[in-house]
Amino acid sequence: MITNILLLLNSLFYLVPSLLDGTLDPVPGIGTPVYTKLMAWGNFNNIDLNNGEYYRLISSMFLHWGLVHFVFNMVSLYQMGPYVEEKFGSGKMGIIYLVSGLAGGLATYYFGGSGKASAGASGAIFGLVGALISYFLLNQSSVSSAILPQLFLIVAINMYFGFASQNIGNAAHIGGLIGGLIVGFIFAR
Fold it and tell me: Full-prediction pTM beyond 0.70?
């Protein structure tokens, strides 16, 4: 249920601005019309937060840099969301998503570099993975021993690509993962 709402919100935040100005650029760069559009619609860099525009910590987790970024994150949310929702319930899954997204945004603010702009759901999605890791660590079973290595592999692969590319905000991924681990631990107890 909440997964579908989050998919819809992310889709609206991607499609409405893109359709309004016709910028459906698959992989845009900084300084392109897409970058300007995202700044207007609520992504952030440190200057915005220093100026008190704190709402951007929420809005930025629903905006995406281009079609490839959007599709990749929505496929991940579509795959992980129902599983997290099954383990924690819809309300708690929504809380995990938002807290993890905020943790990813704050990590970007403090550790991502002052000029780095942030947008995307990946910090929140990493939080879903973190919550599942906490859940399966606390609820040991044959299922958890099969799933935990897969979750660790997902994290390792994504961290590798994050460190290998300058365009990926690993600070958001790590912050979201830690946020999800903590909230997941609290809820899974």
Answer: yes
